Amino acid sequence: MVEFENADLRGSRFSNVHLGGARFQHVDLSEAEVSGALMRGVRLRGCELIGVEITGDVNGLTVNGVEVGAYVEAELDRRHPERRLMRPADAEGFRTAWETLERLWDGTLERARRLPPERLHESVGGEWSFIETLRHLLFATDAWVRRAVLGDPAPWHPLDLPWDQMPDAPGVPRDREVRPSLDEVLAVRRDRAAGVRELIWAQTDESLGRRTEPVKGPGWPEPHAFEVRECLSVVVNEEWEHRLYAERDLAALEGAAPST
Fold it and tell me: Which domain of life does this protein belong to (predicted)?
């Protein structure tokens, strides 16, 4: 255990640090940025939250004695009516979800093409660029469809991009320096999307409950048996959430001056 008292740690960076069970008393967290963090069972007592922004998977959040998760979910569904379709319960629901995602992504790509190509490599607020977002979705499909469901232990394409906090694994690409064009990434993405569509259209309500065989070898996900439904739900959720992030960042790029 390390104890800090009357210490000035402004500007400090913590990466891959385990702070489970840590205690913070009378601390100033103004302008702090937290990303890729697990905050299960966190308690904030007597705190002042002013202008705080939270994005992520929020489950069971209580503010001043009020569980607000249901309110947040209802408001998100109101703002994005298609969001309800991203929780499919049966094979037809997965087909509807995927067709909806295809339609929505068509609009997002049309919007992206109106920007100069170099802008699609720009980060907004330290997040992935538009191209990197598409590359991460290649990784998600390779991981959860080609590896977890179809059993390929090493399905990776050189443009695949895992999430930043994923530990390096032999054979899994993570090239943050490469700058492929939008068309280069989309060529791979069309191939992967066709495979997902084929898999979804082959499902029945019964086959969605089939458990996969654990895939041996380094990579993600780790060797476990999953229901096909779970794997497809991950892909659907990744596609939905990252399109929203992409739309948010495209809006910022449209209104910002070109970087020099």
Answer: Bacteria
